[in-house]
Amino acid sequence: MTTQPLGDHAWLPVPIDLVAEVHAFIAERRGGPLRQPAGFVPQEQDWSKDELVYFDREDNLTLRRFRQLLDVLSARPGRANAMSRLDLATALDITPDQLDSVFTNVSHWMKRDFSRDEPPARWIRGDDIDASLPRVSYRWMNTTDARTWRLLRKLAPVTS
Question: What pTM value is reported for the model?
Answer without folding.
Answer: 0.69
